[in-house]
Recover the amino acids of this structure.
């Protein structure tokens, strides 16, 4: 199955201002975020990408613009299910003022029980994102083969919840995962299990070039990913 290259959007004006942006319109990349996005095509240059999938929010679309300009043949698809969590009434508020909200303790310590007023629950957020990835995996494999790779630009909580799913972690542990703006998290999906290849990587990504699994893949399963027993 394909390798998913998850990119968190570059640093945004909301990140700089310490605001919980959520789905608030008009949140763009700041100067540093634009520079991070401009560096993304070089970081991904070695990877033969089959497609780009983006959250509909502006900061994700802007993050992918330099990559799409460098690869004019790379198709872009917008996927609503990987949009930011709907924080409801919390959207647009300063993070500093949210720390005193009783719900913030639940969000940090027991996120599977957290539901934002006027928004969605964190369980619902993870479920829709996982469903989207599974469907895109099947589509990319059907159209480009099992060794294909594709890039998906989304948001911090979405990426953390996808990593938790890939590692078989309960959602209550997902706050232990971290992904910086414009970092790359790579997950190689196989018939038996996903493998986390990179987490929050801000460096060179040439090692993610998909390899031919070879004749051992059908018998051993893990050979397609590389490494010893139980490790990619």
């Amino acid at each position: 199955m394909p390798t998913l290259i998850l990119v968190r959007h570059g640093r945004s004006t909301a990140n700089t201002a310490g605001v919980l942006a959520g789905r608030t319109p008009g949140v763009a990349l700041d100067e540093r975020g634009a520079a991070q996005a401009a560096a993304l095509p070089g970081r991904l240059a070695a990877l033969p990408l089959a497609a780009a999938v983006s959250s509909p929010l502006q900061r994700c679309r802007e993050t992918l613009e330099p990559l799409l300009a460098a690869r004019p043949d790379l198709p872009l698809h917008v996927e609503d299910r990987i949009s930011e969590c709907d924080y409801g009434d919390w959207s647009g508020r300063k993070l500093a003022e949210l720390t005193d909200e009783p719900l913030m303790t639940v969000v940090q310590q027991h996120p599977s029980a957290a539901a934002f007023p006027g928004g969605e629950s964190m369980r619902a957020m993870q479920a829709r994102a996982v469903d989207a990835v599974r469907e895109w995996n099947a589509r990319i494999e059907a159209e480009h083969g099992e060794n294909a790779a594709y890039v998906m630009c989304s948001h911090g909580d979405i990426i953390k919840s996808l990593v938790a799913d890939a590692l078989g972690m309960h959602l209550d542990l997902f706050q232990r995962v971290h992904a910086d703006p414009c970092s790359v998290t790579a997950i190689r999906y196989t018939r038996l299990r996903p493998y986390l290849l990179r987490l929050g990587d801000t460096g060179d990504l040439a090692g993610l070039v998909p390899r031919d699994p070879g004749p051992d893949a059908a018998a051993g399963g893990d050979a397609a990913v590389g490494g010893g027993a139980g490790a990619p």
About this structure: The first strand starts at residue 3 and ends at 8. Confidence is low (pLDDT under 50) at residues 215-232. Strands lie at 3-8, 49-54, 76-78, 149-154, 184-189, 194-201.
